[in-house]
Amino acid sequence: MRVEATIEQWKALYEVTTRIKELKPWEKFWDMDLIGVAKGDEEEPVFYSILGKGGDCYGIAVYEGFEGLNSFLMLTMQQSMNLSTEYVMFHQKNLTCYWGNRDELTDKQRKVIKELGYTYRGKNQWLYFLSFEPGYYPYNMDADEVLRMTEYMQNLYRALKCYEQEDIKVDFEHGNMFHIMLNEENEFINFGEMPLPFTAFQFGNLLITDEELLSNLAKVPKCNAVLEADVAALGASITDKKYDRPANPALSLLGDADSGAILKFEMLEPGEDAVVMLAEILIGFIFQYGAPKEVRVTNVIVEAGLEQICDVCKIKLRRVKSLPGLDEFKHSFGRFGY
Hints:
Radius of gyration: 23 Å
Structural class: alpha+beta
Shape: elongated
Number of domains: 2
Order of helices and strands: HEEEHHEHEHEEHEEEHEHEH
Distance between the termini: 27 Å
Largest sheet: 7 strands, mixed
Number of strands: 12
Helix content: 25-40%
């Protein structure tokens, strides 16, 4: 059950983040220059990306652990992986603060600022916070997120002061970060340059272990179909009492490449894996109509999810730049207001 932060909790977060703004970290760091802070050897680091050196949008994105780092790398590798902006934003996992314009804020965010007594004037001055969670629309932070973000901002403030005072040099361009190790009392153990845990997006191949299913798939006769397969975000904010924030469901889509017809699509609940569902849809098609001669996808994430099935069934799995039939279907959702 969602618990909202108290005004005292918001006050602590706004105070430390305001102090960070005074340091102007975007004058020293590009958004790809990551800062990592870890407590001891056991915990995964928290990673920080400083936004705004280009001058358009000031902010700080906080990525918790290796899962968070992976979503950051998806964002940075979007073009090379041929991922849509909608897909990448749907899979972001971070806590972020922005200094934006008044019209960017929700009524709740403006209410918090008013209660705290802050007055902002001008462009890129209004401080607000958002939580990004896969399967959901970006939303106001709850109480637990506000408390975590406050600690992260306190640690970042100390890291930025250390970076400046110690005149630390980091080769960010070659996969390194500025790293700080803290003990349980938040005291510095060590700091300096350190390689990132990984520098490319980590995606896993979907592995089917049911030997009977694999055997049956291998025996299915061929058909002449050429299919398009993809996953996407619905791009609609869905409010439901079973969710503690507005959902942005994923779609798993299978279509016929020649006719452009949609053969099957499923809308998923937040937390469900759209690639796994897509694999199930493809398996259903294969058992009903036969193994298609070709399946077309646009990105390596979907490709990895369908690779084993296509290998077993001797289906050509081809990565292409676009999927005209599925793209038209996705655009139709937007036209009808979904």
